[in-house]
Design brief:
Blueprint lengths: L3 E4 L6 E4 L9 H14 L1 E4 L6 H9 L4 E2 L15 E4 L31 E8 L12 E5 H6 L3 H7 L3 E4 L1 H11 L9 H6 L3 E4 L1 E3 L6 E3 L6 E4 L4 H15 L5 E4 L6 E5 L3 E5 L10 E7 L5 E2 L1
Parallel strand pairs: 2-3
Antiparallel strand pairs: 1-2, 3-14, 4-16, 5-16, 6-14, 6-16, 7-13, 7-15, 8-9, 8-12, 10-11, 10-17
The chain binds succinic acid.
Amino acid sequence: MDLEFKPLSDHFGAEVLGVDLSQPIDDETFSAIEKAYAKYGVLVFRDQTLTEPDFINFTKRFGELHIYPLAEYAHKTYPEILVLSNIVDDEGNAIGLNDGGSTWHTDNSYTKVPPRGTFLYSLEVPIDDSGNALGDTVFSSVTAAYDDLPEATKTLLQGRTTTHSYEGKHTLRMKIGKYKRKPMTKEILDKLPPVEHPVIRVHPQSGRKCIYVIAGECKGISGMPDDEAETLLDDLAERCHRPEYVYAHQWRKGDVVFWDNCVVQHSATQNYDLPLRRLLWRTTIKGSIPAAN
Ligand code: SIN
């Protein structure tokens, strides 16, 4: 296949032209996509028409699939696929996770081994009366945010860790999310206990340093008084999402977007309501334990 990569922003992201993901991909094309993934951190493939097996087979080439910890939102026939949607069935039940990604985050950072990469495939996009697509996914470069930190902060954060908790994310989304979340259960808490990760994470392939702090989800910094840690975590989170590091992806039906959870954070824009429908499939590939700097 004749591939072309069109950069999407100053710091990261490229649109990949010339590939049909429903067709077998030869090794040379695959290797070019792998290299581009390492270089750009976010890849966008437009105008795809995929079945569930097409989507799974493509994503599986990048690594073993990571299964989302809360099974109730999985595709009924293909549990590797997490369904993200605001659609409800005839009984009024949500067909998928309706507030997935509604605050800045990187996927499953509250687990010991967070996924390396995430793929989204869009099947339905909410369009307003003026023909504008709603429900953008917004990405920000946490490598660029790290690079621009003051040197004293980089030195201060060397070797330090913070605690990520699913409960923190859940509480934040209960508070500010537009959809009502089910209350936290002991079963979920037991399944997803808090985990310690480096505040600055080193990319396992490139060695680039990335800020690994999620607003609302991280608590404390090792070896630092709580009040100081809280101020610094807020500052780091704010820096990660400055406009100069951001690319907003406006969805079209048939887009596949694939990102590296170490180098970008992302957030779903929930500026649409039924009857405007949004439906995406998500798969994730297994990663490694985040390494410290
Ligand atoms: C996610 O965070 O995985 C979902 C993002 C989105 O729905 O835009």
